[in-house]
Amino acid sequence: QATALEPDSRPHCRAPAMLCAVDAMKGVAAAEPAGRPERVDPRDGLAATTRPRPEGAGRALRHRGAAFAAAVSAAALLVAAWSWGHGPRTAAVSGNACPPSADNLAVRAGAMGAKVDLSSAGGALSAMGAAADAALPITFWNSGSCPFAQRAWIALEEKAVPYKFVKVDLSAKSADFVAAYASVSPASNPQAKVPAVQTADGYTMIESDVVAEYLCERFPEYGTPLMPSSAEQRARVRLFIATFDQTLGGALVSLLRAGGDEFFEELAALEGHLQTLNKFLRSHTDGDGKGPFLCGGLFSLAEVHAAPLVQRMFVTLPHFKGVNLRTLLKKLGLGRLRTWFDAVLARPSVVKTGVPEQDLIRSFEQMVKS
To answer: Which CA distances in Å does 139 have to 56, 167, 358?
Structure first.
């Protein structure tokens, strides 16, 4: 029942084009004539007759058909936009992202087996752009050095949405940052932490992984998709994130703090973790199969999540412990993981948001000494 799909009752449905489809389907229901023509009973054969349609019923039915076509076209465009491809779908120009054109999406939808009438569905793309523009620019609070906040920062860069970077002094937090954080945090007396984002229309969100996924879903027509198109592939991304946290998540700190025999124990544990991730990438890599990332050519939330720690491992382990990860990966024969590491470290969004090496070393010195 299309009339039951009220946007306000579907808070998780953020895509404006879907709302366009819902509105169009409402038009289908509204176009239904008040008095339906009596149906022919097929059992009566050709002799069956029907009463004349009520006045205006033909016009209403034609309107109903047009509205239905618009709904189908809008939905097809939405699917095409979400599956725009593995890799860059848009170009950033002067800080603004250029959404894919209606013609391009229509071609993609056609390749997926859907017919799109741009004359009836063009408004879907306009609505997508208008709703996104109302939320921009984004205010992004970040200290500039937090590895967790870097995840949100990478996502912002990948989505190519306009944003305002507000640097937070964690020893003297500004009132607007504290208020924004408190408006979302469920804690009774929250200690404001980075990152936090706030859209131009007032929506605020915190926690790095939550922010990254929110940006991915809120702005599907901008920048890199960050999540693949199928439910199975998206589940694989989430499984990789969980596996990464269970393996390398605590390995860096443990190894940096270890000394004596404990160091060799932690190094052996690191080797095991690296082998686990290499096996995961060899077994589960999906997408076009041609790229270096978990989803082939698509840089996804898996890489967004892992990149800050990977950066820090490649800087701090050689400096403090003499452990060269590339040499270790070669020794262990972990070529797939090495390819993945190199691609993550070379990603422009990761490079741009990273902390300079000397600053990283200084920030870790106290932890290593303790």
So the answer is: 53, 11, 28
Say if residue 366 is exposed, middle or buried (CB neighbours under 10 Å; 0-12, 13-18, 19+): exposed
Buried b (16+ CB within 10 A) or exposed e, 297-326: bbbbbbbbbbbbbbbbbbbbbebbbebebe
User: 91 has which bridge partners?
Assistant: 98
d(CA 252, CA 323): 11
Runs of H (alpha helix) within the chain: 16-30, 57-82, 102-111, 118-134, 147-159, 175-182, 208-218, 231-247, 251-257, 261-284, 301-316, 325-332, 335-346, 348-353, 357-369
Rounded-to-integer distance, Cα 209 and Cα 197, Å: 12
Which residue(s) pair with 298 in the sheet?
295
When pLDDT is cut at 50, 70 and 90, the band that residue 51 belongs to is very low
Closest to 216 measured CA to CA, from 158, 166, 164: 158
Q: Which residue has the tokens 């409402």?
A: 26
Return phi, psi of residue 268, to 5°.
-65, -40
Which residues make Cβ contacts (< 8 Å) with residue 188, sequence separation at least 6?
none
Tens digits of residue pLDDT in 185-214: 999 999 999 999 999 999 999 999 999 999
| Span 82-131, pLDDT tens digits | 444 333 433 333 333 334 444 444 544 554 555 555 454 455 555 656 66
Residue 20 near residue 75 (C-beta atoms within 8 A): no
Residues above pLDDT 90, as percent of the chain: 59
Q: Quick one: CA torsion of 102, 107, 110, 111, rounded to 10 degrees? A: -140
Planar angle of CA 2, 233, 284, nearest 5 degrees:
165
Tell me, what amino acid is at 218?
A: R
